[in-house]
Amino acid sequence: MPRVRFVARVVALAVVVLAGVGACALDPQGDGSGAAAPAPVGVTEQASGASAPPAPSRRPTASPTPVPSRTATPTPSRTPSAKPKPTGFTGCPEGEHQRAVETYLTRLGGFGKLTVDGKQSAADCAAIKKFQRRYGISPAAGRAGATTYDVAKRLADTDVHRCKGGSGLTFCVDLTRQTVWAMRGGTVVLGPTVTRTGMAGYATPAGTYSVGGRNLKEWSNPYEVWLPYWQQFNGGIGFHETTTYLHNSAIGSHGCVNLLHADAVRLWELGSVGTRVVVMGRRPGT
């Protein structure tokens, strides 16, 4: 009897063990840890899809872990990239009157070496900026624009020897070119430099005069404004430092000869009561 019970227990244990092995092998989800369960012997090819499409899964399977591409990441070329060739000087902008301004500044001299080729360069830029600062042109950015061209042309075209002053000191005014200079005994001692004279309705009259009165700071009663470095030569008309932007050609004085600060100071230092004044030509538009 005991032997029969022992054999029965062995048979029952064998059945339980075989049933457990079959359950693990058929569970596509493995043991719930995320690891794949071993495939049953004899169905590996079919389960892998090598010879037949896999059977549809009864439950959603975990997303496969992405496999890095075997394509090699392109490496930078060892050949150095070609640097762009310089297309010209870019330190300051090139203006529409580049060649003309280069020509006039070369004729005037004193602003540095320029190359008359119509192309901006470091030397051209520096010379144009120097010219603009000297004659109060704003902005002094080195660009050969309309104002720079106009001022350079007027100065270069001024014929200083048209002013006949004799042996003494003479202040000369060219109304046509809107320039001023000073001569002593046929030698230029100032200028030529820029000015702005009477506007339409207040034209500065041509003629020969002499300085009759001077004041470092004259008050204008009719226009209620101070006139620095005042030198009167014809009634209420005289030389003085400008009170507005000199290169605004849309306006003008009420007959006076407006000057930049540095020129008004220099003319004051040179002049005295009795200094001869020669005014020639006529301002365009008056």
Question: Can you offer a commentary on this structure?
Answer:
β6 (225-234) and β7 form a beta hairpin. The radius of gyration is 49 Å and the shape is globular. Among the domains are: 98-155; 160-280, L,D-transpeptidase catalytic domain-like. The N and C termini lie far apart (147 Å). It has 6 helices and 9 strands, in the order αααααββββββββαβ. Helix content is 27%, strand content 19%. A 5-stranded mixed β-sheet has the order 3-2-1-9-4, sandwiched between helices. Strands 5-6-7-8 form a 4-stranded mixed β-sheet. With 286 residues, the protein is α+β, with helices and mostly antiparallel strands. InterPro entries: LD-transpeptidase, LD_TPept_cat_dom, PGBD-like_sf, PGBDSf, Transpep_catalytic_dom. The active site is at 240 (proton donor/acceptor), 256 (nucleophile). GO terms for molecular function: peptidoglycan L,D-transpeptidase activity; transferase activity.
- Biggest sheet record: 5 strands, mixed
Helix content: 25-40%
- CATH superfamily label of the domain at 160-280: L,D-transpeptidase catalytic domain-like
Distance between the termini: 147 Å
Order of helices and strands, N to C?
HHHHHEEEEEEEEHE
Overall strand count? 9
CATH-defined fold name of the domain at 160-280? L,D-transpeptidase catalytic domain-like
Structural class: alpha+beta
Sheet with the most strands: spatial strand order: 3-2-1-9-4
Shape: globular
Mean pLDDT comes to: 79
User: What is the level 1 CATH name of the domain at 160-280?
Assistant: Mainly Beta
Radius of gyration: 49 Å
Q: Number of helix segments?
A: 6
CATH architectural name of the domain at 160-280:
Beta Barrel
The percentage of residues in β strands lies in: 15-25%
Active site: 240 (proton donor/acceptor), 256 (nucleophile)
Keywords: Cell shape, Cell wall biogenesis/degradation, Peptidoglycan synthesis, Signal, Transferase
Biased composition (Low complexity): 34-52, 68-87
Biased composition (Pro residues): 53-67
